[in-house]
Here is the input.
Amino acid sequence: MRMSTEPLAIHVSGLTKRFGALTAVDGLQMRVPQGAFFAFLGPNGAGKSTTLSLLTGLYAPDAGTVQVLGVDARKSLLQVKQMLGVVPEELSLFERLTGRQYLTFCGRMHGLSGSEAEARAEELLTLTALREKGAALVVEYSKGMRRRLAIAAALIHAPAVVLLDEPFEGIDVVAVGVVRELLAELSRRGVTIVLTTHVLEIAERLATHAGIILGGRMLDQGPLPELTERHQVSSLQAVFEKLIGAPASVQASLSFYGKNG
Ligand SMILES: Nc1ncnc2c1ncn2[C@@H]1O[C@H](COP(=O)(O)OP(=O)(O)OP(=O)(O)O)[C@@H](O)[C@H]1O
Ligand SMILES: [Mg+2]
Here is the structure.
């Protein structure tokens, strides 16, 4: 892997996290340049969510270092948290607030004034197509609406780095377009984005960089053109298949179903 000197938004080195006998993240190296849109890809159980939880300080690592915009997460976790916006895989929202109140609350928690928090909440409700639902309690939100509210909440303090763990999960086709456009606009404004997704077309369309993880190790990472060139293929999907393997055929299995008819 080529080492470059460009300034990094996220610099992870030797990151390790064990759950009992299982090493979920295994000496991980990760370099996300400032302003990159980084697709963090890998199969189920590869260690993506665990890595993101380590970045946000939800878990303490067993070894390794995490730096966000040059700040060491071990030394200045609060400062790092302030620079990050996070949409976790498992959402935990306040059910008894309205969407509008929830966003305003998140803004206040990040130190915004009441009027600033309200103004941003309003703008984010519109941007995530939740305006009509702004006065409804979170408990009344559908799964996709919750996901969109969580995305809005992650952006309320205008973080320089946004981590999104499968933000498209459960979102309808129209809303996928809304969220995709929102992320593209953030990226154009210089926000660094790390996105995990199993939808490789979305990654291919949005990302400037990608990293592919398996068994807690980064198999390869870099700018998309560099990855495709290195693996002598023409798409991110093909890079992924080369490193991880193509989906298995089901033809040979399901024998207990017999032949139809
Ligand atoms: N709290 C936990 N306790 C024990 N094992 C865990 C825990 N969280 C994750 N693991 C294990 O760590 C490994 C990595 O899990 P992780 O959730 O990071 O994968 P992932 O890449 O996010 O997968 P997915 O695509 O399914 O979301 C898996 O083997 C998983 O079973
Ligand atoms: Mg996950």
About this structure: The chain has nine helices and ten strands. The pocket of adenosine-5'-triphosphate (ligand 1) is lined by residues 19, 22, 24, 42, 44-50, 89 (CB under 6 Å).
